[in-house]
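Risk register update: the risk of archive-format incompatibility is retired. Evidence:
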Amino acid sequence: KCTMNFEKNDIPLATNDSSIEKTDKTDKIDHFNYSIRYVRCLLRILCIWQLVVAEPTRLEKHLSTLFLPFVSILMITLVLPLYCHFIFRPVSHFEMILLLGPLTFQTGNIIMHFILLIRSKTLKLCVQHMEHDWLKFDDPTELNIMKKHVRYSHVLTLVCISFMYASAISYFLIWPLLSGDALDDKNEAAKPKTIPGTEDYFNAQANLLYKIVFCINFISALFHYTVTTAVCNLAIVLVSHACGLIQIIIWNLENFIQQITDKNSSPDETNMRIRIIIEKHVELLNSSRLQRKL
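Archived output:
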C-alpha cells in the first residue's frame, strides 16, 4: 500500500512539472511573437512572411504565391512612367531636380524588396535565432530587460509607421483630392498628377482613366512605403534584440563581480557563472554574424 500510494502521489508531481514547463515555454513564445508582431504584419503585406516563418500555413503559401508577383508589378508600374518621362522627354534642370527624389526613392524600394526576397533564408535564420534566444531566458530580470527593449523597438516602429504612411496618404491621396484642377501648357483644365509620365501613352485626364491611374498609383505607393517601413522595422527589431542581449551580459557580469567581491560563491558556482556568461556571449556573436549577412 505504501508503494502504491507513493507511485500515485509521484505521478501528478511529474505531470505538474511538465505542465509548468509547457506553460513557461508558451509564455516565452508569446513574448517572442509579441516582439516581432510588426515585422510579421509588414512582411505579410509584402507577401514575404511565408518565406521567413518556419512553418507557414497553407493559406499563407497560396496567398503569397498569388499576390507576390502582383506586389512587384504594382511597385514597378509606379516608377516605370517616371523613368520614361525622365529619359524620353525633354526635362528642365528644375524638373530634373524635382523628379530625382521620387525616382531614387522608388528605385531603392524596388531594390530593397528584391533583396528581402533574395535574403529571405538569412532573415529566416535571424528570426529562428531570436526565438531560440527568447526560449533560453529563464531569469525574470533577463526577461524584463528584453521586454524593455521590445517596448523601445515598438515605439520607434510606430513612429516610423506613422511618419511613412502619413506622408504617403498626404501626397498620393489627400493632396490630389484637395488641390483641384489647374491649367496646363495648353491652357486647359488638368487634374493633379502625383507621378508624371502616364499622359505620354494615353489620355490620363479622362475621367475613368484618371480614377484608375489614381487608384493604382495610391496602392503602389502604399507598397513602396511599406517596403521602407519594413526595412526600418527590421533594423530596429534586430538592433534592439542585440542591445538586449548585451544588457543581459552586462547584468550577468555585474552579478558575477558582486559574488566574487562578497565571496559568497563556491568554485563550482563561479565556474558555472563563467560558463553561462561565455555561452551568452557566443549567442550574441552568432546573432550579430547572422545580422551582418542581411
